[in-house]
Fold:
Amino acid sequence: MSQTSTKAIEITKEDIKKLKFSEEDVLTSKEDVAKRKSDLNKASALGAQSKSNIKIYFVDENGKQYKVVATVWATTEKNVSLKKEVMIPLKSIYEVGFF
Structure:
């Protein structure tokens, strides 16, 4: 994806609940979708093992880019689950960053 992470606005986990998300996937290539799935599965394993924080880059329904630093508790077919029942739709995530 051609978006750069530097444009992302840092947001707290709690504020994610205030956002609305598009039904459209931000990623268009099968390779990017597969990499996102692989990265999020790795993030889930890290979260379960060592409670490690990662960076998740995503967009809201208006295409505004955000970044959250958090521990991934679980990844489902449709969402990433963070602490305090915060969910981010997979379709909205365009990059995962590891420390």
User: Anything to note?
Assistant: The domain at 5-98 is CATH 2.30.30.100 (SH3 type barrels.). DSSP finds two helices and seven strands in the chain. Helices lie at 13-16, 30-50. The chain has one domain: 5-98.
